[in-house]
Specification:
Layout lengths: L3 H11 L2 H19 L6 H24 L3 H15 L3
């Protein structure tokens, strides 16, 4: 299972703002799942992370269609961080 708090602390120490924001999003999704009564294990965490990546891929395609390459790049950076845990 992911020790997300450790990764958040490391990102804070290194002042990696974008990575920190994405890590907080991951933590929020995991906490939300637990509050919904889901007992998290590696497989369920991976499923949540894959869902997050798919959401961002959808957003990227919409941003590119709308000519917002800056927002598409931001979404891609989030995908890169999430993929570290898949």
């Amino acid at each position: 299972m992911i020790d997300i708090n450790k990764h958040i602390a490391e990102a804070m120490k290194k002042r990696e703002r974008e990575k920190l924001d994405t890590l907080k999003l991951i933590k929020a999704e995991l906490v939300k799942a637990e509050k919904n009564g889901i007992t998290l294990d590696d497989a369920k965490e991976t499923k949540i992370l894959i869902k997050m990546v798919e959401q961002r891929k959808d957003s990227i395609s919409q941003y590119i269609k709308g000519g917002r390459n800056d927002l598409a790049e931001a979404e891609q950076k989030e995908i890169d961080v999430i993929n570290e845990f898949i």
